[in-house]
């Protein structure tokens, strides 16, 4: 899903909008990585 949105954001003509979308996607990607790391840590400790 994130890759699809990132691909679409590259082709948006409104640069300000594209920049905002990419910034949001970057933050969401960090959040997803953190959640995945926490889930793995919790699974390993059980």
Bin the helical content: over 70%
Mean pLDDT: 85
Specify the overall morphology: elongated
Task: Note poorly predicted spans.
Answer: none
Number of DSSP strands?
0
Number of helices: 2
| Main beta sheet strand tally, sense and closure | none
Number of spatially distinct domains: 1
Set down the secondary structure blueprint.
Elements: H1 2-10, H2 15-45
Describe the overall structure.
The longest helix has 31 residues. This protein has 46 residues and is mainly α. The mean pLDDT is 85. The chain has one domain. It is elongated, with a radius of gyration of 15 Å. Helix content is 87%, strand content 0%. It starts with a helix and ends with a helix.
Task: Pick out its properties.
mainly alpha; 0% strand; 46 residues; elongated
Quick gist of this model?
This protein has helices at 2-10, 15-45. It has 46 residues and is mostly helical.
């Amino acid at each position: 899903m994130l890759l699809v949105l990132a691909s679409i954001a590259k082709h948006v003509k409104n640069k300000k909008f594209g920049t905002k979308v990419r910034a949001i996607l970057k933050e969401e990607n960090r959040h997803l990585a953190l959640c995945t790391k926490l889930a793995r840590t919790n699974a390993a400790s059980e």
